[in-house]
Every structure is written in C-alpha cells, then in structure tokens.
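Ops channel
N.P.: pipeline sanity check, posting one input/output pair.
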C-alpha cells in the first residue's frame, strides 16, 4: 500500500487515530477529516489527490457517510469509497449503494483488504 492516498472521514478520534496509524504504518498517505461535510468540500477541489475514500457512515454534520458515498459516485465515479459502520441499519443502507462496507469494529486485515 505504499503511496496510496486515503481520505479518512471518521468523527471518533480513537478510531481515526487507530485507522490512520495502521494505514500510515503501511506507507499510505492519510488525510483525516471529522465529517462528510468537510470531506465534500475537500473533494470539490482536491479529489484527484486521493486514491480512495474511507468513511464512517454515522457522524455529525448535515451529511453522513451514505450522502458522501452518493456524491462521490456521481461527481468522482472512478474514486473508490469504502464505508464503515457499527449499526446494522446503516450497513444495509450502505450496502445498497454497491460500495464496500466494513462492520465496525473491523480487523486490521479486513481494513487492509478493503483498501487494496
């Protein structure tokens, strides 16, 4: 995974720190944001910088991870997105979008497989 540029969208500081640390230890470049609203702003101007978006589903702000995934699929269809959630209803809604969905908490191996 060296050089893979990840936009990590996670509002839980501990989970963001853990995921970013794991990805960075494997050579990924990680930019972490706390909500989908900020991610959408960044993607408007810098989408070409990222190789993948890794986002929580449930978080604060006016948009959630599902809103983010829908926007990415429309505005940047070549940009892969992986969603993570610990809530079964969110997992079902996310899976309906046709994106990779990880159940939180997920193992490091599951996270790495999804990024690959």
């Amino acid at each position: 995974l060296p050089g893979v540029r990840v936009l990590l969208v996670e509002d839980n500081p501990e989970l963001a720190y853990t995921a970013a640390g794991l990805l960075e230890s494997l050579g990924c470049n990680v930019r972490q944001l706390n909500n989908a609203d900020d991610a959408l702003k960044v993607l408007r101007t810098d989408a070409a910088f990222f190789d993948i978006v890794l986002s929580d589903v449930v978080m604060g702000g006016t948009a959630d991870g599902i809103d983010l995934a829908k926007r990415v699929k429309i505005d940047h269809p070549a940009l892969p997105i992986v969603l993570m959630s610990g809530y079964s209803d969110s997992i079902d809604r996310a899976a309906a979008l046709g994106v990779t969905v990880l159940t939180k908490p997920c193992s490091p191996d599951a996270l790495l497989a999804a990024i690959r």
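N.P.: looks fine end to end. DSSP finds five helices and five strands in the chain.
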